[in-house]
Design goal:
This protein is an all-alpha fold and 273 residues long. 78% of the residues lie in helices and 0% in strands. The chain contains 11 helices and no strands.
Length: 273
């Protein structure tokens, strides 16, 4: 009498196959907010040493621009535009320029494959990285704003509005930077696009809008950081119109949601290739 292993029986084979399939199934995907917090902490600790020197560069650059503009701008609305634009420029340097370079290098080096194997939502990867990079802009933006107010004799009473300007402008610019880095076919092109975006924030955000041609003003309205600059600049007046300030912040936040959604779509598109 021969003995047949149980594994070769038809019914047992189906049972074994079902057992293997159940064992091979991945666990449930992590929820968005816990996954976002984990990615944020990981990115913050990873980039802390490498990005701090670049933050000094961004702050020094913005302060240097204000010192140069002090020779041609005396005060009034032009001084308000220079200080507000230079402060938001720190956010643009880190959240747009550096984040475009980071995601461009991550895509070229195959680093997206690591995140693709993790059970985390794509939005958590994009938002976590964007939040970590935007967090580095807080000290430089505050220092630049205080220095600019002292340099041009502007009031310091409403600097607390930066609590809203930094995250909203940072979200809009970080989403744009991440999308540029993920959609660029090569990391060199991602770096170029990030530099061009920062240059646009410099030229269109720092220079007073009243001296720009109409076509340039239209291009300025398309830049996400413009509304953060306008909201901050409005608070320097003796009687700020808070309805317009909130309106600019709302537009900046809406652009941030759209840009981060585009960046999430670009991440999914790049991760499956």
């Amino acid at each position: 009498m021969s003995v047949v292993p149980a594994e070769v029986l038809p019914g047992s084979a189906l049972a074994v196959e079902e057992t293997v399939r159940e064992a091979a199934e991945l666990g449930p995907r992590a929820r968005l907010w816990p996954a976002l917090a984990a990615v944020y902490r990981a990115q913050l600790s990873r980039a802390r040493v490498a990005r701090i020197p670049l933050l000094f560069v961004a702050t020094f650059q913005s302060i240097g621009i204000m010192v140069l503009m002090r020779g041609v701008v005396d005060g009034g609305g032009e001084a308000q535009a220079v200080v507000a634009g230079s402060s938001v420029l720190v956010v643009a340097f880190v959240a747009l320029n550096l984040l475009a370079q980071y995601f461009g290098q991550l895509r070229a080096s195959g680093g997206l494959d690591h995140y693709a194997t993790l059970p985390v939502p794509p939005a958590a990867v994009v938002l976590g990285a964007a939040g970590a990079y935007a967090s580095f802009t807080v000290p430089g933006t505050v220092v630049t704003a205080v220095f600019g107010c002292v340099l041009f004799g502007l009031p310091l009473a409403h600097l607390w509005v930066l609590i809203a300007v930094i995250p909203l402008a940072g979200a809009a610019l970080a989403g744009l930077g991440a999308a540029l880095g993920l959609l660029a076919p090569r990391p060199e092109l991602a770096t170029l696009l990030g530099q061009l975006g920062m240059s646009a924030a410099l030229l269109l955000g720092v220079l007073p809008a009243d001296r720009m041609p109409q076509a340039v003003r239209f291009a300025r309205d398309l830049l996400p950081s413009t509304y953060g600059v306008e909201a901050f600049a409005r608070t320097f007046g003796p009687h700020p119109d808070w309805a317009f300030v909130l309106g600019d912040l709302a537009v900046c936040g809406g652009v941030g949601v759209v840009s981060l959604a585009v960046a999430t779509w670009a991440y999914r598109r790049a991760a499956v290739r």
